Predict the structure.
Amino acid sequence: MQDARRDKLLSAYIDDELSPRERAQLEQQLETDPALRRRLETLEETVTLLHELPAVSIPRNFILTPKDVDESEPNRTRATRRWVAPLLTAATTVTSLLFILVLAIDSLPINARWGSSAPSPAMDLQMEAPQAMQVEESAEVMVEKEEPVTEQSEALEKAVPQDSLSSGGEAELPAPLFEEEAPVEASDVEEELSVGAAPLSVDPTEGNEAPAIPEPSSRAVADDELGLADAENIEPPSSGPADAPSLGGIPIVAIQVGLGIGSLVLLMLAIQAWRGRHR
Amino acid sequence: MALTNETDLIAAAQHGKLDAFNELVLSYQHQVYNLAYRIMNDPASAADATQETFISAYRNIQRFRGGSFKSWLMRIVSNTCYDELRRRKRRPTTSFDDFGDVDEDANPALVSHQEGPVDYIERRELADALQSAIDTLPPDQRITLVLSDVEDLSYQEIADITHVSLGTVKSRLSRARTKLRDYLQTERELLPSRYRL
């Protein structure tokens, strides 16, 4: 390493490329170090020999003919080359950004990824789920409301003489203390909810009239069927292996691999194009 | 060639005038060929590199924005030779030594100095010895050495041609000269007696 540094100084000294301070230091060393002086001399002789290296004669003239240079080519080649490198660079940038975006989307939690995006079968189920759950809740509420009635009925039955019961026929129950609602079935409730009809009004003073339930339209029936089906089949969205995330039907992994490879290929092409441009 | 004349020729070439460009070829072909020969150490390869250089220069003449046209040509031929040397390194070709004695006529003649035959032979031996020494250098050192000590270009011109810093030029040049000196001291019988180090 010491010799290399010394030779570098000697080489620069031959070409007068040293600073005044470096030159003065080296000349001082040359006066006191014969080996260094000999080293400089042989280096100078080598450079001198190279300077005197004779020129060689050319084997032929190198003037160009139109055949050598297709005169229609240069402009096209120039125009093409001018655009290729920046275009490839832009394509590489876009592909790389898409790759990063897909990576980011894939790393998000499933709920955040699919929560407000375009409709999908999974999302449809989710959207239906709240409606079905509302239906269930309403049904439960109605069932709860029925319970006191049921209890009262039992109480009334107990008050009825056994004879009447044992006779097999339906005993005539005394008029209820309050107007009990006609038994409301779940299907009726769902009909009203799906159609968006006026809420059930339970008016004890109206008599044994069933609450006003609008006639179900065909649409309501269809919605009802859908709601029922969905209510029965609602399950929380699963993120198991069977539900691999995808974009437009294409697995995200495949998109990532494709974008990654595409970015690399475009990058290599862009580098080649820039190298060719700078020649 | 007068500067104005060269400038006019370059301008005409940039407008597609092949004849004007060929005037420039006639002016610089010796220098370009010699540089290619010293780098490649092979007449055929040097001729190919020279032809390729001028074709490339004509096709890209629009990119020449002024300055030294010679340096611009030197850059093209250096890059052409460098790429070829790297290509050969990746795919080594059969050495000339495998074909026995090389035909002397295949080697380019030295430019005549109106000297006697003894001197000519001595000069030829010297040139061959130096060329053999240059051939032992790696491409980047070889190109730097030839541009500096054969073509007599400045450090800055070499830095512009080879797209490296001044410090790198100095390093490459000092290493090349040291290696050449060591080789010639080791193989001193290659040099004519009065030139031995």
